[in-house]
# Entry
Amino acid sequence: MNKIVFITGATSGIGKACAEKFAAANYDLVITGRRMDRLDELQIYLQQKYNVQVKTCCFDVQKREAVFNSVNNLPAAWKNIDILINNAGLALGKDSFENADLDDWDTMLHTNVDGLLYVSKALLPFMIENKKGHIINIGSIAGKEVYENGNIYCASKFAVDAITKSMRIDLLKHRIKVTGINPGAVETEFSLVRFKGDEKKSNAAYDGYVPLTGADIADTIFYCASLPEHVCINDVVITCLQQAGTYYFNKE
Ligand code: NDP
Ligand code: 8X3
# Structure
């Protein structure tokens, strides 16, 4: 088999762009997400276009047992994961602390934090056995700097930042690289999900500037994953030209 990359949240946005980028570079892929129809479609597309092997795993990262079962049921050859991209995640709502919905908070924390932990813990034994691997965690600029009404989304991404740093320290002895990728605004389905299908609010999130694309982030991730064995990029914060922090935009 070729090198294998395992991507969570490959049905859309950054994860999907990563799938295409790595397939184009001849990686075999495990693509995951909750929407099976999208996984099936992407699998066929990537296999036909790039002549690589693609396995689909449909699970909700919040469900610990489902995560472990899916990983443990992979055929042996597919467990030799070279790269894990912990990308599945979401924001739900953008409300002031006192008005925000507790269920939204639960879902964000369970997905962005617990989900990332479950997938990492499920795959790590194979990386440790192989004494190699690269874990790439998708944090956010919201995990570096809080903003008004960002509250628990920001908290979940601050947690990802801390987990990334502590993973890097603890996994040093196993020769496993850990990289944090922290994008600013990227135009994906992120805002549509955050604003629960409200297209007006979602489109407004990208008004007046040219945001990053999923492909921009995939290119950056691929760069980090393609460096010599002895090189580990620890942390990347990436914004579009017109953004310089969670508050600073140069809008037209
Ligand atoms: P999208 O909404 O386009 O993609 C999110 C992906 O996550 C989908 O494939 C979705 O798949 C998956 N996902 C969400 N919840 C779950 C779950 N419970 N179980 C399994 N998969 C899940 O958004 P992005 O591509 O923008 O987001 C990807 C990551 O990038 C997220 O972690 C996000 O926080 C982060 N990010 C995004 C930024 C942006 O501006 N867009 C900026 C900074 C960081 P499915 O629905 O099929 O399960
Ligand atoms: C997504 C970027 O600034 O909308 O993580 O929180 S932001």
Notes: The radius of gyration is 17 Å.
